[in-house]
Specification:
With 690 residues, the protein is of the alpha+beta class. The chain folds into two domains: 2-316, Distorted Sandwich (Beta-galactosidase, Chain A, domain 5), CATH 2.70.98; 328-680, Glycosyltransferase (Alpha/alpha barrel), CATH 1.50.10. It contains 16 helices and 24 strands. The strands form three sheets. The protein has a 19-stranded antiparallel beta sheet that branches. Strand 4 (49-57) and strand 5 form a beta hairpin. Helix 3 packs across helix 4 (374-390) and helix 7 packs parallel to helix 9 (505-522). The radius of gyration is 28 Å and the shape is globular.
Length: 690
């Protein structure tokens, strides 16, 4: 490795160097550059010291020539007793090059100090390093600071990225903050499109609410992202105080500026900071000698914000979900036993709270035939026989055919000439919650379009057309899929209680299924790409990390909105049944997403969401679960609700609640996971002798 010390020199620029584009920093005439074929980061020196940076990116083969973002400071600290934040700057820059990468290191210190307990020197000293690998479109940021005196810290801004500043301004295709926000077009992050205050404000959310530690924004075919390790120890003396604070504003409404802001700072809403505030009040005490560290990465890909999130998954891999709470076969036995005992309501069927249904879940039929526990299987056979008797004679093939035709014909009557299936809040989409919301403002207006409404109708029409060989049903499905090509963000899946056009997980799953069936039945390759796009749309709703003290990996957010504007805020709570229903429905239709989209490890993903939901199951013998339960019913304490699972999980308070749900969807996904694991086990058969 060769170390080069770049000393102060006159303002003489290389032929290819121009004056900095950023107009809000005084330039001292010195510039250092990190560059490869993807990115160019020009680090400039102010008259007070290094520095700030200007990031140029490439698209296709044109090289890093497009001015995209400003790195405003190397770091900046606001310390109690100082009227303004203090920039951390350096007198010199040090460039180190190897075949693998090039890195610029700055020995920084706070620019001024007026402290009664410190004799005029810098309050913070340390280093900031920016590293660019030779063959990768990523810049790594490392901040290592040490307090030179006892201070009270209001904020320490590490990487502070102003995207579009001095170039394309607030123009943008879309932006994603996983688990928190997904904006398109001219929408604002933290907007009231899908929330009312105070839930709408999500500029600096509690880190535990962030599903994936990455923020992404795209413009003109290029997506930029800021990512970080949420497990990094921000303060050296407290190992359990972790999680830097992400800051997300697009456009930059924090500074009322015509660009976008991605930031990473200390402290966080996990420790010392109030949620959605950018300064600690009261300030956080930092003793002399304490280290303050922060690592992050800037990445660039061609495409949209979703492509940037997918790239994060490719780089980091689908995380291991760990061992399930119960062994898979044990989990299935538990659920089957529950259906054979306390989840059976005499005279009604399967259910609880004195209400049951004679509808027979598929997993019950399977267990009655092949279940591991003979007594449970025998009991379920008797209950299945009773349910079938209550249902009367099963419909004949002709009757089932007639019912499918009638359902498809009714859908044709609802379809517009353009192929849409519009929202009808006074008719077929009327619910108590849509009416309640309309007293304030409607969840959707009559005639509004949404992806999920087209997707669910398309699935029914494609199934009818394929099974009945009816071309008009297939053609109607094609029209609906073509109409829905205008939608890029998944919307409309929880139309019965949430704003119709808000980001939604269930809509993503239904659209992925609809477009894959369209590809399979209609042979249009465009539909295959759309299926891959929408199944990948599950990722921004899914927690692909978890902190040390809360188990929540592979939990999912159902949507980024509030029920009825004022009720449940779904960026603050997790829901698991929707993602499970997507994979159950996919399996029933013969769709294997691991084969459809092999670039993403969907088998691990499904095993992950199924492993996660086992944590949600009520078990009165588990004192740890009962301690985190919001349920207070006597039935829970006595075991009458065992194996039911919670509707919601609060990641900040680590509590389960909401209305309990029957566990058949868990059993169905457990069966899918067991089937896949069985295929991977080496065969125990002895080879035949020859």
């Amino acid at each position: 490795m060769t170390d080069i010390i770049i000393k102060r020199r006159p303002a003489v620029f290389p032929r290819e160097m121009k004056m900095p584009r950023y107009r809000e920093a005084s330039y001292a005439g010195e510039t250092s550059v990190l560059e490869n074929r993807y990115l160019r980061l020009e680090l400039h020196k102010r008259i007070t010291g290094w520095g700030w940076g200007e990031l140029l990116v490439g698209k296709g083969q044109d090289g890093p020539s497009r001015f995209f973002a400003i790195l405003e400071n190397l770091a900046e600290a606001h310390i109690a007793g100082h009227a303004r934040p203090l920039r951390l700057e350096a007198k010199e820059s040090k460039l180190a090059k190897t075949e693998a990468s090039q890195a610029l290191t700055f020995e920084v210190q706070s620019r001024e100090a007026l402290s009664s307990n410190h004799e005029g020197g810098p309050l913070l000293k340390g280093s900031v390093t920016l590293e660019l690998p030779t063959g990768d479109a990523v810049i790594r940021y490392r901040m290592r600071l040490v307090a030179q005196a006892a201070i009270e810290l209001r904020s320490l801004r590490g990487i502070w990225l102003r995207i579009g500043a001095g170039s394309f301004g607030s123009a943008r295709h879309d932006a994603i903050f996983p688990g928190i926000d997904w904006v398109v077009g001219d929408e604002w992050s933290s907007g009231t499109d899908w929330f009312e205050h105070p839930e709408a404000l999500r500029v600096a959310p509690h880190p535990y609410k962030v599903a994936i530690p990455v923020m992404a924004l795209s413009h003109d075919g290029v997506a930029i992202s800021l990512s970080w390790d949420p497990h990094q120890s921000a303060l050296s003396h407290v190992s359990r105080i972790r999680c830097p604070q992400p800051v997300f504003a697009t456009p930059n409404f924090i500074d009322r500026m015509n660009h976008h802001l991605f930031g990473l700072m200390l402290p966080s809403a996990r420790w010392g900071l109030r949620e959605n505030q950018l300064e600690a009040d009261p300030p956080v005490p930092v003793p002399r000698g304490m280290r303050l560290d922060l690592d992050a990465a800037i990445s660039v890909v061609n495409g949209t914000s979703l492509d940037a999130v997918v790239e994060w998954v490719r780089r980091n891999g689908m995380p291991d979900p760990g061992a399930p709470r119960y062994d898979w076969e044990d989990a299935l036995d538990r659920i089957a036993e529950a259906y054979n005992s306390h989840l059976w309501v005499d005279g009604q069927g399967w259910g609880f709270r004195g209400r049951g249904s004679p509808n027979v879940p598929r997993f019950v039929l399977d267990y009655a035939r092949h279940g591991r526990c003979a007594d449970t299987a025998r009991g379920l056979k008797e209950k299945v026989a009773w349910c079938l008797k209550q249902q009367g004679r099963r419909a004949s093939a002709a009757q089932r055919r007639r019912a499918m035709i009638d359902d498809a014909e009714n859908l044709l009557k609802l379809q517009t000439p353009e192929g849409d299936f519009p929202f009808d809040p006074a008719g077929r989409h009327k619910t108590n919650l849509t009416e309640k919301a309309a007293l304030w403002r409607p969840l959707g207006l009559p005639g509004d379009s949404a992806l999920d409404l087209c997707a669910t109708a398309s699935i029914a029409l494609l199934q009818a057309g394929e099974k009945l060989h009816k071309e008009r049903f297939l053609e109607a499905a094609r029209k609906a899929l073509e109409f829905a090509m205008r939608f890029e963000r998944p919307e409309g899946g929880d139309w019965w209680e949430t704003p119709l056009r808000s980001p939604n997980l269930l809509a993503a799953g239904n659209a992925a299924i609809a477009y894959y069936l369209g590809y399979r039945d209609l042979g249009d390759e465009r539909y295959l790409e759309r299926a891959r796009h929408f199944i990948r749309c599950l990722l921004p709703f899914t927690h692909l990390w978890q902190p040390m003290d809360v188990s929540m990996i592979y939990n999912t957010k159902p949507c980024f909105n509030s029920t009825c504007w004022f009720l449940s805020d779904w960026t603050s709570k997790h829901v698991q049944w929707e993602v499970l229903s997507v994979f159950h429905k996919s399996d029933q239709l013969g769709i294997d997403w691991a084969k459809v989209d092999p670039e993403i490890d969907w088998e691990t993903y499904q095993r992950g969401v199924t492993t996660a939901v086992l944590r949600w199951m009520i078990d009165h013998d588990d004192p740890q679960w009962m301690f985190r339960s919001e349920f207070s019913a006597e039935a829970v304490r006595e075991g009458a609700w065992d194996t039911l699972f919670a509707d919601t999980f609060d990641p900040v308070n680590d509590t389960y609640g909401g209305g309990p749900i029957m566990p058949e969807i868990i059993a169905a996904n457990v069966q899918i996971v067991m089937k896949r694991l069985a295929r991977k086990r080496p065969s125990k058969r002895k080879p035949k002798s020859t």
